Amino acid sequence: MLSRLDVLVQHRLEKLEKIRALGIDPYPHRYHPSHTAQQVVTLLSQESAQAEVTVAGRITAHRAMGKAAFMDLRDASGKIQLYLRRDRVGEKDFELYKLLDIGDIIGVSGRPFRTHTGEASLEVGRLTLLSKALQPLPEKWHGLTDVEKRYRQRYLDLISCPEIRTIFLARSRIVSAMRRFLDGRGFIEVETPILQSHAGGAMARPFITHHNVLDEDLYLRIATELHLKRLLVGGIDRVYEIGRIFRNEGIDARHNPEFTSLESYEAYADYNDVMKMVEDMIGSVAQGVVGDCCKVDYAGNSINLTPPWRRVTLRDAIIEHAGIDFLQFPDVESLAPKVREKGIPVDATMGRGKLIDELLSKFVEPHLVQPAFLTDYPIELSPLAKKKPDNPALVERFEAFAGGMEIANAFTELNDPLDQRERFTQQLKAREAGDQEAETPDEDFLTALEYGMPPAGGLGVGIDRLVMLLTNQESIREVILFPQLKTK
């Protein structure tokens, strides 16, 4: 027995055959609209609205009235009502109209007018079918309620809930605004490899693939850092890249295995300079997206982005919220019992840095609703950052937080090749002890450092999370057009 969906699809296939029998191509090669729906609405406010216009879009509503009909046509700009009469369009076009369904894409030409209720409309003179939809659209035009279906079939989400488009239009503007900001400061945008022989630049587990001709394993990049710093060595003093990053980690409201990152590096700067740049950049981006450089609403909170943002050391933040001073516990053996007392599970693969990171995630992050910089991290968490001159157990690093989540990470970059080699050696020991997220040595990068890299400030911004913050979305899947899902 056929399902209801099968029956609906069969009816549309039968209509398709009838359309072909009329000598009409249901999938023509091209069509050239003269106006968008919104432009037609604008025309109606002008005295010259009598001119004929041509628009194209998808049928989203249909009201038959014998020898006449009203339809709603929606394009990327908005919606306009169509009024179609048999004596105006002719017999063939009216026969075509009777074979149309909601979801079909059509083109129409005609004269704009307003109905007696004032609704912007178009009296159709010519009708062209541009694409016959064989699948019926969701019945609820206020939006899909099946969240998984929204993510798996994002095209249906965009059709049935046009408001969703505003999120992704905002995302595009955010990325463009970041580019304009950095370009205006003399940064050069570049592209670096996604397939890499070493997965470096971050503490994360990589995806592994295999190149058949070279017969060797390659890694999808977990960061762009090490290649961008090679360019500092080469004399490009201000450089950035916006691109996809891949990490073989969990999926939740703030994590997706592939995400978009901005990384920038500025020669002769340090992490204090980068802090100031982050405040200025996010304020500038917010101005262009939400129209206010100072305040955004996120997760029920009014967040004030006005610089300067609060600055607090990681040590002080953990003391305040967890009651532990990690500097008093210089190794795993002394720190692990204190972490366990706080209800955090500890296993043998967790190094001291991982334990401190767990304290940060559980006890500190939820309190960082207003923008703040956490500064001066333990060296175990930051193998690519410079030590603080007054305390070699810490490095010059900050993470920026807002809305209770990390949105940026930055270092005063380590440019001592001998120190860097020793850091990699320590990371390799951690990996051998079971930490699959520890850094692996990259000999070519170490060689590059030996040619001399200028002191520099480096920055990484999670664009997906920044979009979440500026568009008031609490799940990363709402700001990624095609989030990763388990295959059915």
Q: Which tags fit this structure?
A:
alpha+beta, BirA Bifunctional Protein, domain 2, 488 residues, 9-stranded mixed beta sheet, 5-stranded mixed barrel, OB fold (Dihydrolipoamide Acetyltransferase, E2P), 19 strands, 2 domains
Give a description of the structure.
- With 488 residues, the protein is α+β, with helices and mostly antiparallel strands.
- It has two domains: 4-137, Nucleic acid-binding proteins (OB fold (Dihydrolipoamide Acetyltransferase, E2P), Beta Barrel); 163-309 and 370-478, Bira Bifunctional Protein, Domain 2 (BirA Bifunctional Protein, domain 2, 2-Layer Sandwich), CATH 3.30.930.
- The protein has 15 helices and 19 strands.
- The chain has helices at residues 4-21, 37-43, 86-89, 91-98, 147-152, 154-160, 163-184, 225-233, 271-290, 314-322, 332-341, 352-364, 417-432, 443-450, 463-471, and strands at residues 53-65, 68-75, 78-85, 105-114, 120-131, 188-189, 195-196, 208-211, 216-220, 238-246, 258-267, 295-298, 301-304, 310-313, 372-378, 387-388, 391-402, 405-412, 456-462.
- The strands form four sheets. Strands 6, 10, 11, 14, 15, 16, 17, 18 and 19 form a nine-stranded mixed beta sheet that branches. A five-stranded mixed beta barrel has the order 1-2-3-5-4.
- Strand 17 and strand 18 form a beta hairpin.
- Helix 10 (314-322) crosses helix 12 and helix 11 (332-341) runs parallel beside helix 12.
- The mean pLDDT is 93.
Which term fits the overall shape? elongated
Average pLDDT metric: 93
- Approximate helicity band: 25-40%
Strand content range: 25-35%
**Class of the largest domain in CATH?**
Alpha Beta
CATH architecture of the largest domain: 2-Layer Sandwich
Oligomeric form = single chain
